[in-house]
Specification:
By secondary structure, the chain is an alpha+beta fold. Among the domains are: 107 residues, no CATH class; 63 residues, no CATH class; 92 residues, SH3 type barrels (Roll). Helix content is 45%, strand content 11%. It has 34 helices and 22 strands. The two termini are 28 Å apart.
């Protein structure tokens, strides 16, 4: 029986709660359109792409059992599996039963009709050589001739039967008995035994051809093994001879067992109270939230330029870090999470805030921080990673390739921390690494990590998710996928934004806690930020006040706005600074017509004309109050300011040019962007829509258990076939490589306007995986926005070989 037929039968025999559990774990298999039968559900569960999504989420013992089944082949009895794993002791046997139940819940391993274990066929391709074993003998004998089989039987001392099939069965029966194989090897020449023992200890090399295509030459002792089927060459005699899995197992002996580690490693714990965890988590969260707000404010004031190759480069990242007084890792994490949450988007050659950013800034710090935490939790990359494996600088935002293993490193870290007993943590967070490795063996440490998973651990500590070596309430809410609980924890840890500042006689403004967006923007526009975090410090200077005046504010407006947040009179030095800067502001004006410099004070103009530091401008005096410059207006303006003057620019009509730049807002990317960052009625309405679209596993399980077991066969004549929409009919007519469920999911994506991931074979024959959105069906082509090429592309429907929904797994 095929794995699909046994899986279909097993699914149909489940009760509703157990089936709902399977559907809840394998969400990609029930993505719209809903499967119509158990057979279609089984087909979705067995897609290679779907199975590949599950494996990185599995802990070590689950992968070890799956690898053993892939190596030994199925169907396999539970007893044979236990013996192969050495899981015969009662505690280990019970752990194995738990692993098998969990693998069944993932629809990767299940009992067939005879009570033996069956497995998802794509699991066999997950390992090149599971347990270091080559292919089983029946697979290797496919290219062996009947006469060669006869020679093997004769060499083994077995009378050959008449047909090829009978001879194959006889060889398989002999080699299936490890004791008989071991007895044959015991009689082999010493050179042959050494060769076989060496090959049994090394991983197989699947080499089909040798240099110049010459047939493989027999090494010493190899001929004896080839004659008896202990080694097998391919049908043309090319390449290295291969050792069947049965022979390798016989050589390893009855005492050998596959690795099986059902219990996690034990970390050395230290006592830590909930109050201590809360205190450290609060400090980290408050510091990150304040710096993140500064980073995004700086990105709003001057949207960073995008590199031609994509992403924000090192120079722009350094500029933002300096403006926000934030650590480089915080800048990267903030930008990546904000981009994922829809607060930033690519707008031409820049990465600019979206309208969602304006909504985000209106929220309290707790809600804003919760948005960024949720985005970090689901990021398919390590946002703080600054260099690639070749030690080249990595751009931030749309410049880093997606990495599911990076996501699993983050999830494995929190799962490992959750394993610690209540009231206990670890001395340093890196002590969790062995636990992380056990929970997510396929997770990817960052290439810049000296200690495995150090980048993921540092990010978790920066965000307050891990504190004092233990899981904080923030981390517990993320791990439980509890959005409401996460927001509640953020509200408890982060105070409300403050709308007041304390001004000092040293021209500083200090805010303890989180400043409101209005206050932060006012201070950022009139002073230079020196410190950002749990306490923020700004310093006023003549240049910072001049910038505010250049933006169109008057001295009275600046003083009034600052007084409002000071809660009283401003310090005298600050009032004098504002008044003095305003008094000097605009005494010199720069006009765009051939760059004329004019003013009301002849002595000041004469001073400019004689100033050595301005010689490069080529200033010439045309009249007592008029100079002409040989440089453009902006260059002349900058040069005068650099020498300590306070000129203003004029428009062509002689009025003062206001240099305030309106905020640049980008359109959020559709299709792949998760809808975050909303608040109030808009957020409530959107969450209601999301809830209605979410899969109800229990209801779907009930429907599937009453639906027909198998899907209807496609009708080539179009008379009452299985497809329910015109789009499904058209796609099925052209995309001949697609299965029934693939056709339905691609058609649904076209009709619903959602993104889809496809396995596509280009005209050159090269396979590739593309994420497509903005789909438009134009048979025999599918026109779509290709996220790999970042451009519109046309795809031939017949070259699409597999379809997967986006945003699951």
């Amino acid at each position: 029986m095929t794995s699909r037929s046994t899986l279909t039968a097993w699914l149909a025999g489940l009760d509703a709660p157990r089936l709902a559990r399977v559907l809840g774990i394998r969400k990609d298999a029930v993505a719209p359109p809903e499967p119509r039968s158990m057979e279609e559900l089984a087909e979705r569960l067995l897609r290679p792409g779907s199975v590949a999504l599950v494996l990185p989420q599995l802990a070590l013992p689950y992968l070890q059992v799956a690898e053993a089944l892939a190596a030994l082949g199925t169907p396999l009895s539970r007893g044979d599996l236990a013996r192969a794993l050495g899981a015969t002791a009662p505690t280990v046997a019970r752990a194995l039963d738990g692993v098998l139940v969990a693998l069944a819940d993932h629809a990767l391993v299940w009992p067939d009709g005879d009570g033996k274990l069956a497995m998802a066929a794509p699991l066999r391709q997950a390992w090149d050589a599971p347990l270091g074993l080559d292919a089983p003998l029946d697979e290797l004998l496919e290219g062996v001739t009947s006469e060669e089989l006869r020679g093997m039987l004769v060499a083994l001392g077995i009378k050959p039967p008449g047909t090829r099939q009978q001879r194959t069965t006889a060889v398989l029966e002999h080699h299936g008995d490890q004791q008989r194989v071991a007895a044959v090897i015991a009689k082999a020449p010493s050179a042959t035994r050494r060769l076989l023992e060496r090959r049994a200890k090394s991983a197989p090399r699947h080499t089909e051809f040798v240099v110049f295509g010459a047939p493989g030459a027999d090494s010493p002792g190899e001929r004896w093994a080839l004659d008896r089927g202990l080694l097998v060459r391919n049908r043309h005699g090319y390449g290295q001879a291969r050792m069947p899995a049965e022979v390798t197992l016989a050589l390893r002996g009855p005492g050998w067992s596959a690795p099986f580690e059902p219990f996690p490693p034990v970390a050395e714990p230290v006592s830590v109270t909930a109050v201590e965890v809360d205190r450290e988590s609060m400090a980290a969260a408050a510091a990150f939230a304040a710096q993140a707000a500064s980073v995004l404010s700086a990105s709003s004031s001057a949207p960073p330029a995008k590199l031609k190759s994509g992403g924000i480069g090192a120079r722009e990242l350094a500029r933002i870090a300096k403006a926000a007084q934030a650590d480089g890792a915080v800048v990267r994490i903030t930008l990546e999470t904000a981009y994922s949450a829809g607060l930033l988007a690519v707008d031409g050659d820049r990465v600019a805030p979206t309208e969602e950013y304006d909504t985000w800034t209106a929220q309290e710090p707790a809600e804003r921080f919760a948005e960024l935490l949720q985005a970090w939790w689901s990021l398919g990359l390590t946002p703080s990673q600054a260099r690639d494996e070749d030690d080249k600088a990595l751009p931030a935002v749309v410049g880093t390739p997606p990495c599911d293993g990076c996501l699993q490193a983050r999830h494995g870290l929190l799962a490992a921390a959750a394993m610690l007993p209540e009231g206990q943590g670890v001395k340093v967070a890196t002590d969790l690494v062995p636990l992380v490795t056990w929970h997510r063996p396929l997770a990817h440490p960052s290439t810049q990590d000296e200690t495995p998973f150090a980048a993921a651990i540092r990010e978790a500590e920066l965000l307050g998710v891990i504190a004092r070596g233990a899981l904080s309430p923030l981390g517990a809410a993320l791990l439980a996928d509890d959005t409401e609980g996460l927001t509640t924890a953020c509200r408890r840890l982060l105070p409300e934004a403050t709308g007041t500042a304390r001004f000092g006689g040293d021209l500083t403004a200090v805010i303890a806690g989180m400043p409101s967006v209005r206050v932060a923007e006012l201070l950022d526009s009139t002073a230079d930020r020196e410190v950002s975090g749990t306490a923020s410090v700004w310093r006023f200077s003549a240049d910072s006040v001049r910038l505010a005046l250049d933006a169109g504010r008057t001295a009275d407006e600046i003083s009034a706005e600052l007084t409002a947040i000071a809660g009283g009179a401003l310090p005298q030095p600050l009032s004098y600074l504002i008044a003095d800067t305003a008094r000097r502001h605009g005494h010199v004006r720069i006009a765009p017509a051939a760059c004329v410099v004019h003013g009301e004070e002849p002595a000041l103009l004469a001073e400019l004309a004689a100033h050595r530091g301005l010689a490069a401008l080529g200033l010439r005096q045309l009249a007592p109050t008029v100079l002409v410059s040989g440089s453009p207006p902006d260059q002349t303006l900058a040069a005068l300011r650099a020498q300590g003057y306070a000129p203003v620019a004029e428009a062509a009509d002689g009025t003062v040019r206001i240099e305030k730049v309106p905020p640049q807002r980008a359109a959020a990317i559709p299709a792949l962007r998760k809808t975050r960052g909303r608040t109030g009625p808009e957020r409530t309405a959107h969450r209601a829509a999301e809830a209605s679209a979410a899969v109800d596993s229990c209801a779907m399980a009930a429907r599937l258990l009453t639906a027909p077991l198998t899907a209807p066969e496609p009708d080539p004549f179009g008379t009452g076939g299985p497809f329910h929409t015109d789009t499904e009919e058209i796609v099925a007519g052209y995309a001949k490589q697609l299965t029934y469920t693939d056709v339905r999911q691609l058609a649904h994506a076209i009709d619903a306007g959602t993104a889809i991931r496809v396995a596509y074979v280009a005209a050159s024959g090269s396979p590739t995986v593309r994420t497509l959105s903005r789909l438009d069906l134009d048979p025999p082509y599918l026109e779509a926005w290709c996220h790999l090429r970042d451009a519109e592309r046309a795809f031939t429907l017949s070259r699409i070989h597999e379809v997967m929904p986006v945003g699951h797994g």
